[in-house]
Amino acid sequence: MNMLDFWHQMCDTPCVERRRSEAMHVAKVVRPYKDRLYTYHFLRQTYREGAKVKHRTLANLSHLPPEAIEIIRRLLKGEHFLAAADAFSIVRSLPHGHVAAVLGTLRALGLDGLLERRPSRLRALAIALIVARVIEPASKLATSKGLADSTLAGRLDLGEVSEDELYAAMDWLLGRQARVERALAARHLGSGSLVLYDVTSTYVEGRCCPLARHGYSRDHRPDRAQIVFGLLTDERGCPLAVEAFAGNTADPATLEAQIAKLRERFGLSEVVLVGDRGMLTSARIERLREIGGLGWVSCLRSPAIAALVDAGDLQLGLFDERDLAEIRSPDFPGERLVVCRNSALAAERARKREALLAATEAALSRVAAGVSRGRLRSAAAIGLRAGRVVNAKQMAKHFSLTIAEGVFRFERDAASIAAEAALDGLYVVRTSVPASRLDAASVVETYKRLSAVERDFRAMKGDDLAVRPIFHWREERVRAHLFLCLLAAYVRWHLEAAWAPLLYRDEAPPARVDPVAPRGRSASARRKERDHVTPDGLPVGSFPTLLKHLATLTDSRCVAPWPRRAGDLQQAERPDPAPGPGVRALGLHGRLRVANTARRSGPSRAQIARLALEVRAKEAPHNNMVVMVLVGGWGGRCSSSRRGTCGG
Known about the structure:
Blueprint: H1 3-10, H2 15-18, E1 24-33, E2 36-49, E3 52-60, H3 66-76, E4 89-95, H4 97-108, H5 111-115, H6 121-135, H7 140-146, H8 152-155, H9 163-174, H10 177-188, E5 194-203, E6 226-233, E7 239-246, H11 255-265, E8 271-274, H12 282-291, E9 294-299, H13 302-311, E10 324-327, E11 336-341, H14 343-372, H15 379-392, E12 399-404, E13 407-412, H16 414-421, E14 426-431, H17 440-448, H18 450-461, H19 475-498, H20 523-531, H21 543-550, E15 554-559, E16 569-573, H22 581-585, E17 592-595, H23 605-619, E18 626-630, E19 637-640
Helix pairs in contact: 4-6, 4-19, 6-9, 6-19, 9-19, 14-15
């Protein structure tokens, strides 16, 4: 319907056709009558008689609904209206929500500024690598091809990205590792802070990496060369620094580099280093004493605990009525020894030992059967086969073997088993920190914080961040890959902390009543595990599940059939449920604004803003899912009232 046909329907006055070029408008008239105000709306035409401007009333619109009057008013101002179903057509749609959340968190943490203050393509590529590592970790080749499968490349204005560019960004990133780690340490550590440190290993593909060596494989891949890397975190387990070592490096040998890093690069002269018993050996503790200013919390190995019992410094009768005691020993001068007995751990070790003994006995019985049938006759062959069996599960100390030519017998060593069982559930935490700072219970709880580093390792080495396997051949690229995974772990750690209400993790764990017993879970965490929903009724899931759900928030390129189209529209959808506690917790709930360069060939900013509201109300009246913003020919952009919530 054109404008002339519309006015023919509105008014049958012939002057409409005669004077259609003269302006018409909707006039609002308010008249008082008997202490009340009456509002009227008239369709009027403005015309000129000589030098005078006059108005002619064409119709009384007061009987129409307010919505119809408003549409007429806007039609007279030159706006165009379409049915909601015909307002636009989607020509391209990309996952956006997970990109917005991760990229927004990275920027909210100021990580982009730590890499480099000024924007550059190399910085944008490095940020893309970090975000992609959190969202969907893959090789650099796969990442370069997959950047265009979401809005990540567009939000960073990257365009086409090649694999070589990503390698160049990794080299650029490695050059900033020392500065970034120093900034993170300044943010999370201070004088006297607790610093957690642990090491792990991961295997390497190929044979060209200088760091790749055969060593003790924590991945249970002794057939592959590996590297060793150590991770420094704060007392909560937030990852702050990483360093790679050759694959045959022993755990204690990595400690010297970390001490130098803490003192020289981070400028921390007084910290408390928390490491496991394989890390902080007696030799390394002597080195810490020589340096001074560095306290430590570690644990004793089983032979050292047995030596304490044999020397009489540790009385097993102490734990008849309690599970924690602090002792002193002349073998550990200047140290506090906190002895703990965990009954649940004792029961588990007894169960596991019995299972290993039974499995070893079954295997030894098969060896004995082979000897009796004459398949094994020489003492050398029998000893070789039996040695493999008892060493497979480290049970050689608990069996007595009789081997001769054509003879093989075995039995359990009851004395050895009883001696080991007496120490079941016992562990001794050693520390140099005085009791004025950490009492006995706090010492035990501090040592248990190492579980946070183990959790970081599981995230980095598992499918979450996929640090393994390593395909890089050059040592610098391996170090850059580890630093990239560290930054991704840093962003992921803060995301998990912010999303804790929507995850199965306990966002408010109860205080430990017994430092030896396992920490309990809060009532809210148990309720989430039982019902799989939050108190607000939102679904609870894992971190990957939550990212997949966010990916359903898409960014779509739309074509609108304007009479004189000057560009396209950008449609951003919110995932169901509508804005609420869950979406706010995800950091995606923010007030959107529409910016326009006011090109006159297209709709005005006000027109598009109103159209967006109309389409949203008609297409999704229940969950408020559609928001439209300007891009392309109109030069529009999407911004947010909260930093980083739109990822742009």
